[in-house]
Amino acid sequence: MANPQKLRGVCIGAGYFSHFQYEAWQRIPEVDLVAFSNRDPDRARAIRDKFKLARCYADYREMFDRERPDFVDVITPPPSHQALCAEAAARGIHIVCQKPLAPSLAQARAIVANADRAGVRFMVHENFRFQPWHREIRRQLTAGALGDRLHSLHFRMRMGDGWGPDAYIPRQPYFRDYPRLLMYETGVHFIDTFRYLAGEITRVSAWLRRLNSVIQGEDCGVVLFEFANGAVGLYDANRFNEPNYPEARYTFGEFLVEGNGGSLRLYPDARLTLQPLGQPEHDLDYPHQNLNFCGDCCYLTQRHFIDRLLDGQPFETNGHDYLQTLAVQEAVYRSAQTRSPVDVETVNRDSPFRGLDHLAIAVPDTEAALAIWRDRFGFALVLQEEVNGGTVRLTHLELGNTHLQLVQPLSPDHPLQAWLAKHGPALHHFCLRVDDLGQAMAAVRERGLPTAPAPHQGTQGKRALFLDKSATQGVQVELTGQ
């Protein structure tokens, strides 16, 4: 694009993290931040007063049409991103969008594809790779400080902001309701950083847990990454337990990078050292400061966005590159669900199905069934819920690579009562896992597979949908997802 005196920018959002981005924009001389949009008057007032922004719009579309900006910074929750980016793209406005990019990989792909069709530049505000210590580690690797073969990367993170009944409330209370948390919100930073430092990830093995019962998603995980160049990476993360150093949110933890020529170590205070084989560890002198957020990485990310807008070169975290990060993230969740390694390539295949979620047996008496499957076979009880207004009891047992679901109708007029009267306790259906149930429903219908008219309630807040047996030779198939 042409190099004007100033690029006209606008922002959407006024939440906790937006303050870091507003502050960073004010230090970029090529940018004139002309307006912002937010529907909450109190939050909008705080931004207006703090950053001296005179024009605030409740309707971002009106802001687009009146201000005619060169770019928009989208700093809102993930479910809003698709619509906001579509409106900007339709007006030819370039976009930098906060992560998480979207609630699902399918929606993220749709955002990127729409920006492509509109011919606008699109970048994800993924800022961890721009932290000064990661840039220096990359520089050391490129210079051969660790030799010519990378062995491993190991990042250990303890945040300590996720324990107790008030976890996350002071800063980011919406974290409590995310069905996916650690890898979706925080771990994705390190997936991108690992890719930045070591290249493409081909396979993952993941173990995810929820330590605090007051939240919905996982807050603890151990993830093993296998790289195309033969290196391995380990992400050992926990938002529940506290670190033994004062500032958990500066580097977010400790990093060890090893190669056939030595080791690099990042300490929580951003001290970075090099230890060549056979030599003592010594400090590396590099510029970094505890400014804004995590070494001023918001500024450095936004500086990159403007530089690439002006010179026309690709963004490091452009939409297509970031989709690969999100494919790795999805592989992590699938691996944790199936308790097996997952090849990232399988995520990129165009299929809505993510593997077997469970096998379901219809039973008239859950306790009698548990006496067989839990007590005699030894399958561990995972969960039990009453759903659909208390008309059905669902009980899950762990089979090792999937779940066994016991389905007991509780109301006398439930359709399963007639099915049980005809078949007795028996295998009723198998269930396939999908990312987004609405999109999966549309996809299977396009493939000539009719479904029930509407979804029903599944376990753990998920929705479920039966396919019509006429298209599957009488086999009952269910889909489940968000």
Structural class: alpha/beta
Give the % helix.
25-40%
Give the total of beta strands: 23
Question: Largest beta sheet: what is the strand line-up?
Answer: 14-13-12-11-7-10-9-8-15
Strand content: 25-35%
Q: What does the radius of gyration come to?
A: 25 Å
Query: Which geometry do the CA atoms define?
Result: globular
CATH architecture title of the largest domain: 2-Layer Sandwich
Q: Which CATH class of the largest domain?
A: Alpha Beta
Task: Describe the fold and architecture.
- By secondary structure, the chain is an alpha/beta fold.
- The protein folds into three domains: about 5-120, 3-Layer(aba) Sandwich (Rossmann fold), CATH 3.40.50.720; about 130-290 and about 325-345, Dihydrodipicolinate Reductase, domain 2; about 355-480, 2,3-Dihydroxybiphenyl 1,2-Dioxygenase, domain 1 (Roll), CATH 3.10.180.
- Helices cover about 30% and strands about 30% of the residues.
- The longest helix has 20 residues, at about 320-340.
- The relative contact order is 0.10.
